[in-house]
Amino acid sequence: MENSEVEVIDPLTEQEENRLEELERVVVEGMKGPFDSGFALREIHGEKYYRKTHPTFEVYVESKFGIARQTAYRLIDAANVFENVTHGLQNPPLGSDISPFLSLPSNERQIRSMAKLAGPEEQIEVWQRAVQTSPKGKPTGAHVNKLVNEKLGVTLQRTGTKITQAARELPEDFIQAFLTITEKLFAAKKDNFKGIDRKKVIEFIERLRRFIED
């Protein structure tokens, strides 16, 4: 009889169990509010509190709350964006043109697309522009999404130009191959690598780099 490895799962401490119960209440009640449920789900995921009853976070949220994994991660992403924007507006860098008096995001749908952006700086920049170009300073999700796509387009265009210029010195068949994979990567990045494991893509590119260097 072959030995098989059994994953040992640490049980929750009493303190963790109490915290999980508290967070689960927040998730249920937070569904009616803007971002609290996202923050609660983020902590449950990060601390792996779901391990008490479920093998994965995805199975846990669907079983416990009846929401799909995509919805759970979307709520977490929105909470992260809200946190980034809030912190950026309340603590603007010296010399920046960020206004601390801008209104804050009010719901998940409004800032859903901002999770595609590179990080806090771009998120704050897009939100400030969205508020400043919206009636009464209250941007819609559609308007924010438009500005996000504009920002992504500029960033990708600049990157694509640099890659194309660098590829000109390669043989024609190499140029076509690199441009094909580059277009695929740009399309995936614009969609925030939806349905694609970003880490595996990076790992593949790293292996390719090492292969070329060897």
Descriptive key words:
single chain; mainly alpha; 0% strand; 9 helices; globular; 214 residues
**Amount of helix:** 55-70%
State the distance separating the first and last CA atoms. Answer: 42 Å
**Helix-strand makeup class:** mainly alpha
* Mean pLDDT across every amino acid position: 83
SSE topology string: HHHHHHHHH
Main sheet specs: none
Q: What would you call the shape?
A: globular
Q: What is the strand tally?
A: 0
Residue runs with pLDDT of under 50 for 5 or more positions: none
Strand content: under 5%
Gyration radius (Cα, Å) is 22 Å
Number of helices: 9
Write a brief caption for the model.
By secondary structure, the chain is mainly alpha-helical. It contains nine helices and no strands. The model has no long low-confidence stretch (mean pLDDT 83).
